Amino acid sequence: MICVILYPWIRRSPCVTSTSSIRLRKFCSRSIRTLVDSIVPLKPSPEFFKMSAVPEELGKIFQYVDKNKERFIERLRDVVRIPSVSSAPDKRDDVIAMVRVTEEKLKKLGAKTELCDVGTQKLSDGRTLRLPPVILAKLGDDPSKPTVLVYGHLDVQPAAKEDGWNTEPFDLTLSCDGKKLYGRGASDDKGPVMCWLNAIESYQNCDIDLPTNLKFVFEGMEESGSEGLEELLEAKRDSFFKGIHYVCISDNYWLGTRKPCLTYGLRGICYFFIEIECAVKDLHSGLYGGVLNEATSDLIHVLDSLLDRQGKIKIPDLQNDVLPVTDEEKELYKNIDFNVSEFKTEIGTNQLLHNEDKAKILMSRWRFPSLSIHGIEGAFAEEGSKTVIPRKVVGKFSIRIVPNMEPQKVEESVVKYLTSVWNKRGSNNKFKVYMTHGAKSWVSDVNHTNYTAARAAVRHVFNVEPDLTREGGSIPITINLEDVTGTNVILIPIGCCDDGAHSQNEKIDVLNYIEGSKLLAAYLYEIGNQHQKS
Ligand SMILES: NCC(=O)N[C@@H](Cc1c[nH]cn1)C(=O)O
Ligand SMILES: [Zn+2]
Ligand SMILES: [Zn+2]
């Protein structure tokens, strides 16, 4: 039997279900209002309003998700509250708490869980810190069903109100129009992880048998290079990671704000530190200024040698391995729904390096390397006019790498180039450059059942054919998951491009969180459906 539902985008219209009954903290500020007002009004094409035929079981699940919207939002609130910042040593206990809370949630759904110790981490100050355990879990063991491996991360980027947040970053806050949930990790990646739990709960409470067996890898170090995880994958290659048919990751974003997409490529990342030391302690610039080469000016000189004004990486040999763009590839960019002026508005810039050329902008984000300078540790960065000469500064930058580029080769080129820049500088200060972590890029086969199932799932939920996109960010473990399972990996993004992952005021739209829970349920349904045929 077929059940007919209205295309859910309609619910973006003003007749949105009232959220006044929701026991949620609401936040009204001019900045959020401005943000909401500035969003280009949705003009759905006529096909958006077509009726969509959804299989009866999925229809029931979708209704369950809608009915439990408030509780699902509370579920996200519970985990956003935990400041699980993997890069901050003093927050390590919170990362571990987040891992434990998630393990409990999985157990409640009936999963068999294991917390795997992945050893220790050496900090730059020489200290050793225990890495958060990785959750490996299994739900279902039916040999007649396919097995889907789900990966997600439980750690987040740092966030503080003083950085320019309008709300407390670790207190999930609903915007006054009831459409957006602000909080660190809301989109990256606690929201999507909770969507998986929502989807599974929905099957169970609707008394519908899960169409697949599930395995989970949830880690707490993704934002810091997934330390320890690769070794765990290798150690469990012939046990936990055996017998997996499909891998699914929800840890990226739609290309825009309106149309869902599926993602088949990621750039890799090579992260570098440059340490420069000029004294044994910080110095008064009135007493010591003018008598020594200062570490900060040395560092700025070195950092300035990395990029030219057009954003071209100046490190020789680095671009040698980048594959040329083929005519076939050029065609792929033509039909992708990407609006350059909306993109500029979202960033808040009126000038991009590649003007209004959609294909060039997308290629620069997806298939060419880029270099970004992230910050300088030790340099005076607070308010006020402190007259200090910092004794030691550490510059941090990363290079997003693309297919055919190898992290080790990138490391060699960077170290060789910066050492020569340093030698020419002629400073007597102490200088060190090293790569902290390197991860390869990843590109997948979009003709695999993993993708056809996900496309059908998008049609069930959004009644639209998704764009197939690549992503400029990195999920370091993706390629290892592909290797260790020997099967196809898909990225199913849940949030929008304007979610502000890693930035101030990170959010997830309520619509994306709720429809995203349905999407993952529909994906499992379609994997169950299409696996038998493949
Ligand atoms: N949502 C994925 C993501 O944000 N990944 C990080 C991974 C990373 C690697 N080193 C530091 N962070 C990214 O920046 O792409
Ligand atoms: Zn992430
Ligand atoms: Zn992230």
Automatic annotation (TrEMBL):
GO terms for biological process: proteolysis. The record marks H284 as: Important for catalytic activity. Substrate binds at D251, H284, T387, R400, S474, H502. Its cofactor is Mn(2+). Mn(2+) 1 binds at D188, E223, H502. The keyword Plastid does not apply. The keyword Metal-binding applies. One of its GO terms (molecular function) is metal ion binding. Mn(2+) 2 binds at H153, D188, D251. Residues 264-420 form the Peptidase M20 dimerisation domain. Binds 2 manganese ions per subunit. The active site is at D155, E222. Keywords: Hydrolase, Manganese, Metal-binding, Metalloprotease, Protease. It holds the Pfam family Peptidase_M20. SUPFAM superfamilies: Zn-dependent exopeptidases. Belongs to the peptidase M20A family. This is Peptidase M20 dimerisation domain-containing protein. It comes from Apolygus lucorum (Small green plant bug).
